[in-house]
Amino acid sequence: MSDLEVRQLRYFVAVAEELHFGRAAERLGMAQPPLSRAIRDLERQLGVQLLIRTTRQVSLTPAGEVLLRDGLAALDAVAAAGRRAQHAGRDEPGLRLTLKADYDGGLLPQILALYEQEDAAVPVSVHMGGRGEQAPALRDGRADVALVPAPFDDRDIDFEPLTTEPCFVALAATDPLVAKETLRQADLAGRPGPGDVSGGRPLDLAQIFGLVELGKIVWYPPLSVTRRHARPGIVYRPVLDLDPITIAVAWPREARSPAVAAFVRTAMTVASLVPATAG
Fold it and tell me: 3-state DSSP call for residue 168?
């Protein structure tokens, strides 16, 4: 069997995801007959049937399901390799750091200041995103290193925990629960959070704070965020039975960059100097 080509995988993934040759051909910007021939040629090359075709539908065989899963991973890896090569070939080197806004355990300013003193340091560009976006950015080559709340999907990623913080709840200053010095999850049962009112859209901090102040939602930030964002219309209370949040530094498992290694080393050094706040 000869090696598969990226083009073949793209063709198959399009058909496997659409389960319709016409839609897949339109997605690929090609005519349907050559796409059908390409899939038949791929099945002959592999010696297995990948698709079950009837006059009404297209479905995947077990072999097709495996190729779809592994083909998606392979295409992602090829795209990530291209992005990393482009980044490495830039005239001016740089380190791309991604994190959720304010979810750095209060460590980022110290990390960046100390990192500048490293021999392997390069300019750092900081990319803020929503929760859950950091690990995919590392895997697909859009970022070199991340500060990320754990647990997260760590496939093909190495990481080191930096700090663990207790969780608080942000309440409107007029909320009756403010009278309690500490709360438990049962006290907050049925209270909507940001995800319940956003219609699936990520909210930025200004929007979250505005909704909390109006009493429309409650929100569960870690200790470092409460310290950074004191507001007259919001009161923070510890929630005793909420799991603490751990912030980790993460990087692609195959990374061999001295700049990445220096950043990880610096982050761990800074974290070791900060007193533990969990528990």
Answer: strand
180 contact partners, CB below 8 Å, separation of at least 6: 187, 237
Secondary structure class of 55 (helix, strand, coil):
coil
Tokens representing 63 are: 């072999």
Contact (Cβ atoms closer than 8 angstroms) between residue 172 and residue 215: yes
Rounded to two decimals, the pTM is 0.66
CATH topology classification for 6-87: Arc Repressor Mutant, subunit A (1.10.10)
Please give the structure tokens belonging to residue 207: 């929007």
User: Backbone phi, then psi, for 77, in 5-degree steps?
Assistant: -65, -40
The rounded distance, in Å, linking the Cα atoms of 68 and 75 is 10
Cβ proximity of 247 and 104 under 8 Å: yes
pLDDT tier at 101, thresholds 50, 70, 90: confident
Q: Distance between CA 142 and CA 31 in Å, rounded?
A: 32
Section 5-31 average pLDDT: 91
Which one of 2.60.40.10, 3.40.50.1860, 3.30.413.10, 3.40.190.10 gives the CATH number of domain 90-165+244-272?
3.40.190.10
